[in-house]
Amino acid sequence: MKGYAMLKIGESGWIEKDTPACGPLDAIVKPLAVAICTSDVHTLWEGAIGDRHNMILGHEASAEVVEVGSEVKDFKPGDRVLIPAITPDWNSLEAQAGYSMHSGGMLAGWKFSNFKDGVFSEYFHVNDADGNLALMPEGMDPADACILSDMVPTGFHAVELADVQLGDTVLVIGIGPVGLMSVAGAALRGASRIIAVGTRPVCIEAAKGYGATDFISYKDGPIDEQVMELTGGKGVDRVCIAGGTVETFEPAVKALKPGGKIGNVNYLGSGDYINIPRVEWGVGMGHKDIRGGLMPGGRLRMEKLSSLVTAGRLDLHPECTHVFHGWDHLEEALFLMRDKPADLIKPVVVID
Ligand SMILES: [Zn+2]
């Protein structure tokens, strides 16, 4: 089979590989659509997870099952499926402890294009098929279905980590494709006011559609000062961080009320330490929780999140700004994600 691979840091291209073998609990699937993620850019061009040789890239896809292992009960060849970017080993002790995403070691539930080949290939392997696949709802667009792999569960996980409650004022830092889903998740959880930090017009328009009520730009001064001005000096109840750097925690803590919570899902690609401002953290006693986590993955979550789409409560279409058709356009889509033109939110490639 052919797959689009990282040859080494900074170099990529199409390669030939053997079709993966199917273990008794596994499935082999072929993509219906794949989406490009900023993580692919970090992995390939920034070497964020270290060097990899001839590793097929990609972790966001919808697919059709072509083979299942002898012990797989609920899926069969021909099924159209959703696949989470994080595919834990559900029998692991970490999963039993409630941390499936860390099954086998910290962050080790992230397998595609990290510990094994990813999804940018004619066929790919899914471990623990009954635990990780979900049937794609009838009539769902395969391009939209890719957004359920990572953008929805990751963006929503920031909302879960920040524990957004009815009537909360929520600050969402970063409104790229993940942050937009944090906006949508906060709105679904019943936030009253959602203050979004972002600058690109295409993202601001989408964020309005997903429920953002106020906008601030880091270009207009410190985020926390603008938040304080908007909230009459009170600050916010929750912060979802879906963009920025190790520096972003400083305004987040400053903008947060005592007793508030910060949920981070942003991938911190550089910097050795995170600065927490001592005084605004209540000199260590402010009850300002800072939580960061990789999304859990798995079938149940996929089924629940996709039910929001079929029930008409979540529209994924605004995320897919650039839809291509055919593998020939994969590289173009990947380079687009690296170069981020002004009108881009998410590039998706449908495999016709
Ligand atoms: Zn991703």
List the helices and strands and how they pair.
Layout: E1 2-8, E2 11-16, E3 27-35, H1 38-45, E4 55-56, E5 60-68, E6 80-83, H2 93-96, E7 124-126, H3 129-132, E8 134-135, H4 142-147, H5 151-162, E9 169-173, H6 177-188, E10 193-197, H7 201-210, E11 214-216, H8 223-230, E12 236-241, H9 249-255, E13 256-264, E14 289-292, H10 299-310, E15 322-325, H11 330-339, E16 347-350
Parallel strand pairs: 9-10, 9-12, 10-11, 12-13, 13-14, 15-16
Antiparallel strand pairs: 1-2, 1-4, 3-5, 3-7, 3-16, 5-6, 6-8
This protein binds zinc ion (ZN).
Protein model, in words:
There is one protein chain. Helices cover 26% and strands 23% of the residues. With 352 residues, it is α/β, with parallel strands linked by helices. It has 2 domains: 2-150 and 295-350, Alpha-Beta Complex (Quinone Oxidoreductase, Chain A, domain 1), CATH 3.90.180; 153-292, Rossmann fold. A hairpin with a 2-residue loop joins strand 1 (2-8) and strand 2. The longest helix is centred in the middle third of the chain and has 12 residues, at 151-162. It is globular, with a radius of gyration of 20 Å. The model has no long low-confidence stretch (mean pLDDT 97). The structure holds zinc ion (ZN). Residues 37, 39, 59-60, 85, 150 line the site of zinc ion (ZN).
